[in-house]
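I have been asked to look over a protein record a colleague put together. This is what I was given:
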Amino acid sequence: MDPNRLRRLLADVQSGHVDVEAALDQLRTLPYDDIGDARLDLHRSLRQGLPEVVFCQSKTVEQVVDILRRLWQHHDRVLATRVSDDMAAEIQPQLQVPPDEAGSARIHYDPVSRLLALTRTQLPPPAPDAPYALVVSAGTSDLPVAEEAAQTAEFLGSRTERVYDVGVAGVHRLLDEQERLSGADVVVSVAGMEGALTSVVGGLVACPVIGVPTSVGYGAHFGGIAPLLAMLNSCAPGVAVVNIDNGFGAGLYAHLILRRIQRDLP
C-alpha cells in the first residue's frame, strides 16, 4: 500500500469529495508494492479475504527474506510455503520477530509441511462443532503433502482433522473411519502410487472431495502423473483435483468451502 496515495484518498473521503463506497472500490485496486524481484499484492486480502502467500521454492534466501519482511510490515499473519530445512535455518535468524505488547508475535517453521508462518495475532480456535475439513492420506510417504494441506487450512482459521495411512491396500483401515468421513464438510484425499484412495473416498461421502495426487510411487507412476490421471478419471461424483503435490492449493480450497458454509449458517 502506498502511504501517500492512501492519505490523499482518506483526505478526499474526509472532505466529502469521494464517498465511502467509491473509496472502497479504489482500495481494491491500489497498486502493488514493487520491491524489485517481486511485486507484492498487498490488497489481495481486501479482494479475496486471504493475504498473498509466498512460494519459496527456487527463490534465493535473500529474495524470501525481502518479501517476507515487506509482507510482515502490512499483515499480521504471513505464510510461506515450500521452505526447505536449509532455507529455514538461514532465514529464521534474519526474521526474528520482536515481541509485541501482548507477547504473541512469533515465527514458526514446520519441517514436515515445509510451511513457515509469521504471526502477530492468533486466530480464535474454531468451535468444536464448526464445519471441518478431513485430510485423508494413503500412506506415511504422503505425509508432507497432507500436512501442507492440513496446516494451510488451520493457518487460515479452519477446523481440520486428520486420518492418515488408510490407503486402499488395507481398505478396512479407511472404513473404520466412516463416522468421521460422514461428518466432514469437505475431504482432502492425498495419495500417490495409483491414487485409488480418492475414488474410494468419493464413493463414501456426500461432501466435496479434493483429490491431491503425490509424486510418491514406483517407475510407472511417472512422478505423480498416474494418480493425477486416476483422480481426474474418477467414477465417483463430487471429486475435484489439484495439481501433483499441491497440498497448499487443496488446503486453501477446503478453507474457502468451509468459509462459505460458515457464512451461510444462521
